[in-house]
Amino acid sequence: MTTPDLSELIWASRYRGAAGNGVPDASIADTWARVARSIASVERDSREWEQRFLSALENFRFLPGGRILAGAGLGKDVTLCNCFVAGPLHDSLDGILESLKETAITMQHGGGIGLDFSPLRPCGSPAIRTGATASGPVSFMHVWDSMCETLLASGRRRGAMMGTLRCDHPDIEAFIDAKRDPDALHNFNLSVLITDDFLRAVDEDREWPLVYPPDGDPRVDRRVPAGTLWQHIVESALDTAEPGLLFVDTINRENNLRYCESISATNPCGEVPLPAYGACNLGSINLAAAVTAPFSDAAAIDHASLQRLCGTAVRFLDNVIDVSRYPLEKQAVQAKRTRRIGLGVTGLGDALAMLGLHYDSDVARDMASAAMRAIRDSAYRASIELAREKGAFPGFDAGRYCAAPFIRRLPGDLREALAVHGIRNSHVLSVAPAGTISLLAGNVSSGIEPIYALEAVRSVRDATGNEREIGVADFAFRQWRKQCDAEATRPRSFVTADALSGDAHLAMQACLQPCVDNAISKTITLSPEATAETVEHVFRSAHAKGIKGCTVFRPGSMRGQVIRTRDDSHCCGVERECD
What we know:
Layout: H1 3-15, H2 28-40, H3 46-57, E1 62-64, H4 66-71, E2 83-85, H5 93-108, E3 112-116, H6 137-152, E4 161-166, H7 172-176, E5 188-194, H8 196-203, E6 207-212, E7 219-225, H9 226-240, E8 244-247, H10 248-253, E9 265-266, E10 273-274, E11 279-286, E12 291-292, E13 300-301, H11 303-323, H12 329-338, E14 341-346, H13 348-355, H14 362-390, H15 398-402, H16 405-408, H17 412-421, H18 435-440, E15 455-461, E16 467-473, H19 475-483, H20 502-512, E17 523-525, H21 532-544, E18 549-553, E19 563-565
Parallel strand pairs: 2-3, 3-4, 4-5, 5-8, 11-14, 17-18
Antiparallel strand pairs: 1-11, 2-11, 6-7, 8-18, 9-10, 12-13, 15-16, 15-19
Helix pairs in contact: 2-3, 5-6, 8-9, 9-21, 11-14, 13-19, 14-17, 14-20, 20-21
């Protein structure tokens, strides 16, 4: 089966909708029209904006998150937000069951969700009211996982949750090992909340206190060598690709709303750190579609078109906040108080190949950061203009918001306009994996990842829920084969993820993070021969470079494989897909 057939399968199984009249979309053009009409419905001049939104969607230039494509304009009780974080877990049976119910309701409506399990008492501690022995956070994660599996059995979208735990929780070792069993916690991604103080304790070879509760009046349960705990994390990540790391102090220090919220969890793929009951909707600019004269000396990114597209995309995603349903009223309140959106990019690897640039080169990183900077500035300008027209987000406090580190790094004219007019969205930018929507767009490289494989076999779930293996070819590679002589030598710019060092992957993420106010979901692909020292180096470098979270993947590790090359020589796939 060819890649265009895969695009058709993705559309038919994930995004083809049937509105109230029961008539399904006849083509992707019908889907675009349905979505544009729905998202423009909150505009005073809805017909004009419907046409502008439609123009942005056509030819896959702008790719809204999958929940938007799948649900907008259908009149169904589903959410258009990809991302949620649960309310705070309370350490009581009533609190745990209430949170489980809220998670189930959120997932039933189509949303992925992140949860911080740190408030739950450690395994073996006595329950105050009953005297029973607590089973600990990891045991309750299995309850959440079973719930997700049950919901998955009645739906067509893979369940997605992120579980986090503080690095000083007494059950941290059990959390680190929670996915060493290949049959455990399939519906969770796991991340340890790493603090700056913990890394200093590792450097200073100090004992590290494991404490509970996490706030208020914490009591020391026991102490462990910080270096030993660190190596435990590193070795598990090497063996299983879990857990990832969330540098929680960096996340909160860089948060535009640090003056009014604290963050301890993210959405399932890590690109949107969110407070309790936080929600965010996503969309990606397709950089591969912005390349003019590909594979020629005149190849370039059309920056003018890119900037216009950003303005339309910001307005589109801001409208989604008002069009969307929310599984819980508390999520609606939080979403409309901050009006977070997550505009990002996909197709970077393909765009670089089409421009003749090797992913691991200074010129490629310069091009990528220039494009991301242009997107940042255009997106912030659009959100400021929306604030002039429709009002700033309700939680806006000019003095404290403008003091945030990210805002201080904006160009002077944007800072001045923001101080005068405010801004519509507290956070504007986020780089998601964009895996499924990138397949929809003809298998462009996903997010900021390099090309996974020029030709591969991919496991895909069809409309009946059955797994199928389908042959795919990379979008840019197909274009090159159509455009160039059959005897032509393949350009060096067609480099794949497995051929790059961990440092090369990390360098791209690091050069883009300063232009992204939320976070970037990026998997650092390592060689099969990578060692614990390799993983430690990547984790340390990520923290030093100001990256908010880091996940590694070593082919041959225990983690599930969703993509393999034609000759089965290596796996290029990862599980963290959030659309």
